[in-house]
Design brief:
Helix content is 41%, strand content 13%. A seven-stranded mixed β-sheet has the order 1-9-8-5-4-2-3, with helices on both faces. By secondary structure, it is α/β, with parallel strands linked by helices. The longest helix is centred in the first third of the chain and has 22 residues.
């Protein structure tokens, strides 16, 4: 059983991908070829954003967003501690200070209450609260209603890190068009992934879009050798854009299938495990299906039992950022990040893919339900 079955997806669209790749080889425009602009237009239309600017990867997307919004020294950028390092590592790159915020245990996303605490702490340290970067963790949109209220009241910008959740739905809107800027990643394991690295930035502001477009190509001006700002090299390869066009064509269908599998998991597992529950007005991309047990010891035994019957699992994430060597000295919510620490010690993810067969779903469910979860400590 595959944790994420990319081969099955490739089999479905292999001929169309081969045709797309052949077209790129024929025209030979390997950098910023016509497929890049075609993809950007299609991505913007899918989520309802005014502008889409592709780039080399999801980490660059976050950095480009901060650069375009002129976030820098003396500024505080608020990020959840329970996430991948890319969410925080770009902040020191622009000279700003990451400030870690706790999560809500029922969603694994940024806590609005903890954000408010962290803002006050940052201000007391002499930092200017500049930007909030919530993460759509595991595919579920963050609590944008509450977070937007805070950003507006504090005069901060909202950068939505939707590397795992692009294309999800939040109260009638699609992620990609919920903040001042949204970023995503096309890393192969993401719900919409290419066959290498790739990323994109979304905004409704044409001026911001123009600045990002400049920054991603060495700070270009109107002419190739007239660089008007210090930029970077972060272009999406034409071949990857061509592949993504065919993947995007089936993306809505794949999201529907992920939703069906997640509902089946939830219905079967909710009596014994802490499973993700979605309100009717929120829809996840289900980048991961993550469950929680009572302790790290329970998790270790549960994963071992699943491994024994050929079921792969993964832990996202075993150590919150504020406990990692590179980030432990940065500021945080002074009331602590308890939920991030609880989640890191007790969550694990089971196979999730639009192509996970019903037989494999049944195998996962049966293996989990056969565990006497309360006895796993012993």
């Amino acid at each position: 059983m595959q944790f994420i079955d990319l081969a099955a997806q490739q089999q479905r669209i292999r001929q169309r991908i081969d045709a797309r790749i052949a077209a790129v080889l024929d025209h030979g425009n390997y950098i910023m070829g016509p497929e890049v602009a075609e993809l950007e237009s299609a991505l913007a239309a899918f989520c309802g954003a005014g502008h889409c600017i592709s780039c080399a990867n999801g980490t660059d997307a976050l950095q480009l967003a901060l650069m375009a919004l002129e976030v820098g020294p003396g500024d505080a950028v608020f990020v959840p501690s329970f996430t991948f390092a890319a969410s925080a590592e770009v902040v020191p790159f622009v000279g700003a200070t990451p400030v870690f915020v706790d999560i809500e245990l029922d969603t694994y996303n940024m806590s609005a209450e903890s954000l408010q605490n962290a803002i006050e702490a940052a201000r007391n340290m002499g930092l200017r609260p500049a930007a909030v970067m919530p993460v759509d963790l595991f595919g579920r949109p963050a609590d944008y209603e509450k977070i937007t209220e805070i950003t507006k009241a504090e005069g901060m910008v909202l950068i939505c890190d939707s590397a795992q959740g692009w294309g999800a739905q939040y109260k009638g809107r699609v992620t990609g068009a919920l903040g001042d800027i949204t970023t995503t990643s096309f890393f192969p394991a993401k719900p919409l992934g290419c066959y290498g690295d790739g990323g994109a930035i979304f905004t409704d502001d044409p001026e911001i879009a123009a600045v990002i477009d400049s920054y991603r190509v060495h700070g270009k001006g109107t002419e190739k050798y007239d660089n008007v700002r210090v930029g970077m090299n972060s272009r999406l390869d034409t071949l990857q854009a061509a592949i993504l066009l065919e993947k995007l064509a089936i993306y809505a269908d794949e999201l529907d299938q992920r939703e069906r599998i997640a509902r089946r998991y939830t219905a079967a597992l909710s009596d014994q495990f802490i499973v993700p529950e979605m309100p009717q007005d929120i829809r996840s991309t289900w980048a991961q299906y993550t469950i929680r047990v009572g302790s790290e010891a329970q998790r270790t035994r549960a994963q071992g039992a699943l491994k024994d019957v050929g079921i792969p699992t993964a832990i996202y994430y075993p150590k919150p950022l504020h406990q990692q060597t590179a980030y432990r000295d940065f500021p945080r919510d002074p009331k602590g990040l308890e939920n991030s620490e609880i989640a890191a010690s007790s969550v694990f993810s089971v196979p999730m893919s639009p192509y996970l067969t019903e037989a494999d779903q049944d195998k996962v469910i049966a293996a989990l339900m056969s565990l006497r979860i309360n006895d796993l400590e012993t």
